[in-house]
Write a structure and sequence with these properties.
Lipocalin; mainly beta; 61% strand
């Protein structure tokens, strides 16, 4: 048992050595401002891939936002390639110094995020329904503002420290009068 714990600790320490910190992107332009980016309707397109690269699901998302006091509310409406629909409503709260917290019904606890330059790094745990079961997944989101209207997101999903898949998502701001 001691040998197993030692190997596990070694593996975790080696894995953490390769971590990128969001501050690495502090000088990258354009600067990401969540309130500005989501001040218009946003359309997103994405896919979920298993760890082996197989695309399991594709989806589209329509996002509208509003302000409630200090909070930014993002109302996301998903349409999946199998015809299923899902809604997630995020309540995002600025914490100062580029830090944000977020809550949604299917998020376990509080999501924690930090912005530097053109990049937002989110970490949270998500209740993910699959068939007749629900799994708690650790989500590691990296979002990069490419231009004032385009945001690219790459998420690693893991369970018990083991990667199970990735989500790739492209966000595009729509004109204020765009129909969704």
């Amino acid at each position: 048992m001691t040998r197993f714990l030692l190997l596990l600790a070694l593996a975790l320490s080696v894995a953490s050595c390769g971590s990128v910190v969001v501050a690495r992107y502090a000088d990258q332009q354009p600067t990401l401002n969540l309130e500005r980016f989501f001040s218009q309707p946003v359309k997103a397109w994405g896919m979920f891939q298993k760890r082996n690269g197989e695309v399991v699901k594709r989806f589209e998302v329509d996002i509208v936002s509003r302000r409630e006091g200090n909070n930014l509310i993002l109302d996301e409406r998903f349409l999946y390639s199998d015809g299923t629909r899902q809604r997630r409503v995020w309540t995002l709260t600025p914490e100062g110094n580029g830090r944000w917290s977020g809550r949604a019904d299917d998020v376990v606890g509080v999501a924690r995020g930090e912005i530097a330059g053109n990049t937002l790094h989110w970490r949270y745990r998500l209740n993910l329904p699959v068939d007749d079961s629900t799994y708690v997944m650790s989500m590691d989101d990296w979002m990069y503002l490419m231009d004032e209207d385009t945001l690219i997101n790459r998420t690693t999903m893991s369970k018990l420290g083991v990667e199970v898949g990735q989500v790739t998502l492209f966000f595009r701001r729509q004109s204020a009068g765009a129909t969704q």
